[in-house]
Amino acid sequence: MTEHTDYLLQSYRFDLPQEQIAQHPPRQRGESRLLVMSRHECSGPLVHHHMFQQLPELLPQGALIVANNSRVLPARLLGRRETGGKVEFLLLTPLPLLLQGAVTHGGRSQAEAEGLLRCGGRVRDGDCLHFGENINITVRGSGPFGHRRVRLDWQGDLAAAFAATGHMPLPPYIRRSDATEDCSRYQTVYASEDKNGSVAAPTAGLHFTADMRQRLTGAGFSWAEVTLYVGYGTFSPVRCEDIRQHCMHREYIEIPESTAETVAAARAEGRPIVAVGTTSARTLEGVVQQCGRVQAFSGWTDIFLYPGRKIQVVDALLTNFHLPESSLLMLVSAFAGRQRVLAAYTEAVARGYRFFSYGDAMLIR
Fold first, then answer.
1. What is the per-residue pLDDT for 89?
2. Contact indicator for 104, 228 with CB cutoff of 8 Å
3. SS3 state of residue 203
4. How far apart are CA 99 and CA 196, in angstroms?
5. What are the residue ranges spanned by the domains of the chain?
């Protein structure tokens, strides 16, 4: 009966007061709370309450920490149509992939891409949209889930053009416009400049500071990085009543040879693998699903983890609290059991934890 219930969408609902959805980051990076729960049945309490600053004392001894180093692009553009009407565009194609297919002629570059459009009237194929001085977009067609195929036309450095013109693509549950603080706070301290292109932050990593990184190294923990370009599909709710029917969005991932070797060495030595965030977990588990082991890899993953799907690489998971009925909540439930996770969430709500992207953290070990 429990197994069947795990497949029902309604089994992933929980009550969350609106005031516990964090609208701003904590005053200082790393000041978040940290709820710690056991992945397995144990005789003690289900959860323990700590601060994120205590993380080095709470991780499994000798663990390898694997983090997602993707960087959030200011991918939300505000511009105008040729008629003068306002239009908004959110780029969904990871920037490195877009640039790989770019063609430059006469000082300007063009590339095909996908994105989301919002405006007051109907946008037709062939319409040209203008965003600042350097970026123009021609609508090419429609795709699934409201996506639009477009051709981008720009001059100079595209990442710089987005940085000058774009806005940080805050999640829809943050009910305010992006502010100056979001340029740095909606970005991990270890985000790589050459991994620019996520449309959402790998939020479990937002709690880390440079000082925390040094403390972890000093405490004997090793660190490795993967890349998953977080797509807007991460915010899409699961709508199928039987979650096994859900069509999972795909995201582009990269695992360098150095990380593959580090993970293999840790596993051979019996050291635990700690994934920082669901994106790091999806990357590791996704490549194992496709290749049979963690190896150097560049390509797409659409792995969907829910109870009944085996977790093959990750031994502990550092994550934030996730939306009801989301694929991320189902991933966490695959890792630690749906009933245990929802019981921990109930405790977190009762204790006033802050939820979602700018919220508090959870360590499952």
1. 95
2. no
3. helix
4. 11
5. 2-71+183-364, 75-167
Among residues 92, 118, 115, 88, the alpha carbon closest in space to that of 199 is found at 92
* Chain mean pLDDT for the chain: 94
Beta partners for residue 354, in sequence order:
none
DSSP string, 1-30: -HHHHHTBGGGG-----GGGB-SS--SSTT
Q: Indicate the residue type of 184.
A: S
In sequence order, what are the residues at sequence separation of 6 or more whose Cβ sits closer than 8 angstroms to the Cβ of residue 187? Answer: 71, 72, 201, 206
**Rounded-to-integer distance, Cα 68 and Cα 60, Å:** 20
CA 252/CA 231 separation, integer angstroms? 9
Residue with tokens 């309604």: 10
Helix (H, G, I), strand (E, B) or coil at 309: coil
d(CA 27, CA 261): 38
Integer-rounded Cα radius of gyration of the chain: 21
Which of 159, 148, 138 has the alpha carbon at shortest distance from 95? Answer: 159
Q: How many CB atoms lie within 10 A of CB 116?
A: 18
pLDDT at 2: 62
Gap between the terminal Cα atoms of the chain: 26
CA dist., res. 11 & res. 330, Å (int): 10
Helix (H/G/I), strand (E/B), else coil: 345: helix
Classify domain 75-167 at the CATH superfamily level. Answer: QueA-like (2.40.10.240)
| β pairing state of 64-68 and 251-255 | unpaired
The two structure tokens encoding residue 17:
């007061």
Per-residue pLDDT tens for 134-158?
899 999 998 776 789 999 999 999 9
Interatomic CA distance for residues 114 and 37, integer angstroms: 39
Q: Is the pLDDT of residue 119 over 90?
A: no
- DSSP letters, 27-76, are SSTT--EEEEE-SS--SS-SEEEEEGGGHHHHSPTTPEEEEE--EE---E
What single-letter DSSP state applies at residue 152?
A: E
- Residue 273 is inside which H or E element, if any? strand 273-276
Range 286-296 average pLDDT: 97
CATH classification code of 2-71+183-364: 3.40.1780.10
Q: Alpha helices of the chain — where are they, by DSSP H?
A: 2-6, 55-58, 95-100, 158-165, 182-185, 210-218, 257-268, 277-291, 327-336, 338-350
